[in-house]
Amino acid sequence: MASHADTDVVVKFNRLPEASRRIDDAAKEILREGANDVKVRADGRKPDKVPSRVKSDKDGYLVEFGSSKIFWGHFYEFGTILISAKPFATPAAESAFPAIKLKLSRLEKFLW
């Protein structure tokens, strides 16, 4: 360890790990809220029989529509040769994204 015996003033910047944790926690919360917002917006547009849920994984949060038994959500979202597309997930994500982006841009307040 370095000695500071011949120094009058020592300024130590050691808050970076703490700031990093606060930013990480705040960003995760913003993304969780954003995923829930996308789910709520999509739930108002999607067919009632298509289940939806918010999941977390190692990369963040995601909204799933459908299940192994109810797999036709993507048919509504993108259409088929028999039915035209009736998007619900894409418009929900696009309408929620500006608020998520704005909140993420304000993360600098957690630095100090």
Structure classification: mainly alpha
Low-confidence spans: pLDDT under 50, at least 5 residues?
none
* Domain count: 1
Report how far the terminal alpha carbons are from each other: 27 Å
Q: Total number of β-strand segments?
A: 2
Average the pLDDT over all residues and give the rounded result.
Answer: 86
What's the Cα radius of gyration?
22 Å
Report the order of strands and helices: HEEHH
Strand fraction:
5-15%
User: Helix tally?
Assistant: 3
Morphology: elongated
The strand order across the widest sheet is 1-2
Sheet with the most strands, sense and barrel status:
2 strands, antiparallel
Task: Classify the helix fraction into a percent range.
Answer: 40-55%
Architecture blueprint of SSEs:
Layout: H1 16-43, E1 52-57, E2 60-65, H2 73-78, H3 89-105
Antiparallel strand pairs: 1-2
Helix pairs in contact: 1-3
Brief synopsis:
It is built from three helices and two strands.
Description:
- The protein is mainly α and 112 residues long.
- The chain has one domain.
- 46% of the residues lie in helices and 11% in strands.
- The protein has three helices and two strands.
- It has helices spanning 16-43, 73-78, 89-105; strands at residues 52-57, 60-65.
- A two-stranded antiparallel sheet has the order 1-2.
- A hairpin with a 2-residue loop joins strand 1 (52-57) and strand 2 (60-65).
- It is elongated, with a radius of gyration of 22 Å.
- The two termini are 27 Å apart.
- The mean pLDDT is 86.
